[in-house]
Design goal:
Blueprint: H1 25-35, H2 42-54
C-alpha cells in the first residue's frame, strides 16, 4: 500500500495554522497509518518525517 500526503497549508487554502508543521508530522502520520489500516515501526515514521522535513520551507527555504 502506498499513500500520498500533501500539505495544503497556505498553498491552496489560506487559514490559521502553524507556520511550521514539524510538530504535527508524527501525529498526522499516525492518523494516516490508522485510517489506512497499516502497521508502521518507529523507523518508518523517522523516514517519513525526514522526507517531510526536506520539503518544509521553514527548515529548508526555497530561496536563500
Amino acid at each position: 500500500m502506498q499513500a500520498v500526503i500533501f500539505d495544503i497549508g497556505h498553498t491552496l487554502v489560506d487559514y490559521k495554522n502553524p507556520l511550521n508543521w514539524r510538530a504535527l508530522y508524527k501525529e498526522a502520520l499516525k492518523n494516516m497509518v490508522t485510517r489506512c489500516q497499516m502497521s508502521w515501526q518507529e523507523k518508518q515514521y523517522r523516514i517519513a518525517i525526514s522526507i517531510l522535513e526536506k520539503y518544509n520551507t521553514r527548515l529548508n527555504p526555497r530561496v536563500k
